[in-house]
Design goal:
With about 230 residues, this protein is α/β, with parallel strands linked by helices. It has one domain: Undecaprenyl pyrophosphate synthetase, CATH 3.40.1180.10. The protein has a 6-stranded parallel β-sheet, sandwiched between helices. Helix 5 links the parallel strand 3 and strand 4. Helix 2 packs parallel to helix 3 and helix 3 runs parallel beside helix 5. The radius of gyration is 18 Å and the shape is globular. The chain binds 3-methylbut-3-enyl trihydrogen diphosphate (IPE) (2 copies) and magnesium ion.
Length: about 230
Amino acid sequence: MEIPTHVAIIMDGNGRWAQERGLKRSEGHKEGGKTLEKLLMHAKKCGIKYLSVYAFSTDNFKRSQEEVDYLMNLLIYYFKTKLQTLCKDDIKVVFSGRREPLKEEVLKEMDNITDKTKDNKTCLLNICLNYGAQEEIVDASLKVAEDIENGTLKKEDLTRDNFYRYLYQDLPPIDLLIRTGKEHRLSNFMLYQAFYAEIYFVDTYFPDFLEDDLDKALAYYGNRDRRFGL
Ligand code: IPE
Ligand code: IPE
Ligand code: MG
């Protein structure tokens, strides 16, 4: 079966998972974190080279201060405690998103994990944190304008392929895009990179989306006929 090079996951439904169990939304986020750990190991085992995950959108700052703080602290906890495992498993971590208005303590851990895992090769984990796809395209356009202005790039040399270099991370396009949690929308996620992605929507809330579910998504991908406009 053909394994996708780049898999992306919109990890949605943590809040509803918790609410349906009479728990606080934060319990759903905590459980979602454990799920991501399992999926990352499984993705690596399956031979997936690039895994992008939507951890926090620019629009998620509209949520209550309590929920935002919980999520940021959860991220810091993971960055601090999982570094050794990531290194042992040869996983490289990169981030996509704007730095503003993330707090210094989050940025510090992000920079640390990026630096400590930069030479790892087996699998790349792209964490989209304070990420928005329209923001990414706007930010990339500004960098393009800058390069044209300073002479690094000729206008006529800009193509849809080399535009990737101006995005937050220069990754291959997404082959398989998974969204858990019942909604059928993109919510401002990787619009440029998903241009020919096979899209897999699944009702399962993210905390319950485990190894078997990823296998099903991969089987779905394996059965697609990708024509790319041919
Ligand atoms: C996804 O779960 C995680 C984040 C957005 C951080 P949600 O928190 O959106 O959960 P639902 O969609 O409200 O159930
Ligand atoms: C998308 O989920 C963001 C993440 C999974 C981090 P949302 O829950 O924020 O998306 P909407 O509001 O349902 O579109
Ligand atoms: Mg949601």
